[in-house]
Write a structure and sequence with these properties.
The protein has 260 residues and is mainly α. Helix 5 packs antiparallel against helix 6, helix 8 runs antiparallel to helix 9 and helix 9 packs antiparallel against helix 10.
Length: 260
C-alpha cells in the first residue's frame, strides 16, 4: 500500500495551488501521485486514487480542457463508485460538452442518490432541467437547493427565471426581491425584477429597476433594451391618451357631428 499520509498531503497541496490559479503546476504533481497509486493497484488505495483523479480533473477543468477533465472524473468514479462528489464533478463537466446533457443528468441523479444534502448538485441539476425546458423540475431542484442553503442567491434568481417561463410572475417577483434582499449589489436581479414589474403593470417600479441596473452597468444590453422599449410604450400611450382627449373635446364642441 502506498503511503496514504504523504499522498493525501500532496493532493491537498496541489488543490491549494489550483485554488491559487496555478493549475499547470498542480498537474505534474498529481500525475505523479496517480502513477504511484495506479502502480500499487491495491483496493485500499482506491479512494485515494479517486481523490487524486478528481483533483487532476479539477486542474484540467480550470484550464478549460474538458476532454481530459472528463477522462479523469470518469476514472475517479470507477475507482470509487461511492463518491457523490465524483459523480457531481462528472456531471458538471459533461453538462458543458456537446450532447452531454443525458450523461450529466444521470451523474447528478446518482450523486444525489449517494448524498441528498448536496445543494450545489440540486442547483446544477436545476440549471440542466432549465436548459432543457423542464421548468417545473428546475423549480423543484432550485427549491431544494434553497432549503439546504437559504442564502444561495443564484438559486433564488434562477428559480425566478424558471417561474417567469411558466408565467408565475407573482412567484418570480418574490424570488427576485429575495435575491435583492440577500445581495443588493446584484444588478441583474434589478433587471429581472423590472421585467416582472413591467408585466404586472408597475411601469414606474420597472423603470426604477432598469435605471438601478444602468447606474452600475451603463452598457448592460438587457436593461438598455428593456428601458428603451418601456419608454417607447409609455410615449405611445401618452400620445394615444392625448389623441383621445382631443377627439372627446371635438365631440363636446360639436355633439351632432355636423361640419362647422
Amino acid at each position: 500500500m502506498v503511503d496514504e499520509k504523504d499522498n493525501s498531503a500532496i493532493i491537498a497541496e496541489a488543490m491549494e495551488r489550483i485554488r491559487e490559479g496555478k493549475a499547470p503546476e498542480a498537474l505534474e504533481t498529481l500525475s505523479g501521485v496517480i502513477d504511484r497509486l495506479t502502480a500499487a493497484g491495491t483496493a485500499a488505495d482506491a479512494p485515494l486514487l479517486a481523490e487524486a483523479l478528481r483533483a487532476r480533473g479539477t486542474a484540467y477543468f480550470c484550464l478549460r480542457n474538458l476532454h481530459d477533465a472528463c477522462r479523469d472524473f470518469t476514472a475517479a468514479v470507477k475507482s470509487d463508485p461511492s463518491s457523490a462528489l465524483g459523480f457531481f464533478d462528472l456531471g458538471v463537466v459533461t453538462a458543458l460538452m456537446e450532447n452531454g446533457a443525458p450523461t450529466a443528468m444521470k451523474c447528478y441523479n446518482r450523486a444525489l442518490e449517494l448524498d441528498d444534502s448536496m445543494a450545489d448538485c440540486y442547483y446544477n441539476r436545476g440549471n440542466l432541467h432549465d436548459s432543457l425546458g423542464e421548468y417545473e423540475e428546475a423549480i423543484a431542484d432550485f427549491t431544494k437547493a434553497i432549503e439546504l442553503v437559504p442564502e444561495m442567491t443564484a438559486a433564488w434568481n434562477n428559480r425566478g427565471n424558471a417561474r417567469m417561463e411558466l408565467a408565475d410572475y407573482a412567484g418570480a417577483l418574490a424570488d427576485f426581491e429575495e435575491v435583492i434582499r440577500l445581495n443588493p449589489e446584484r444588478e441583474n436581479a434589478y433587471t429581472n425584477r423590472g421585467y416582472v414589474r413591467e408585466v404586472l403593470g408597475d411601469t414606474a417600479g420597472a423603470l426604477a429597476d432598469y435605471n438601478r441596473t444602468l447606474e452600475k452597468r451603463p452598457n448592460d444590453p438587457i436593461a438598455l433594451a428593456n428601458r428603451r422599449r418601456l419608454l417607447s410604450d409609455l410615449r405611445r400611450g401618452e400620445e394615444a391618451d392625448s389623441a383621445t382627449e382631443q377627439e372627446a373635446a371635438k365631440q363636446a364642441d360639436n355633439p351632432s357631428g355636423e361640419n362647422a
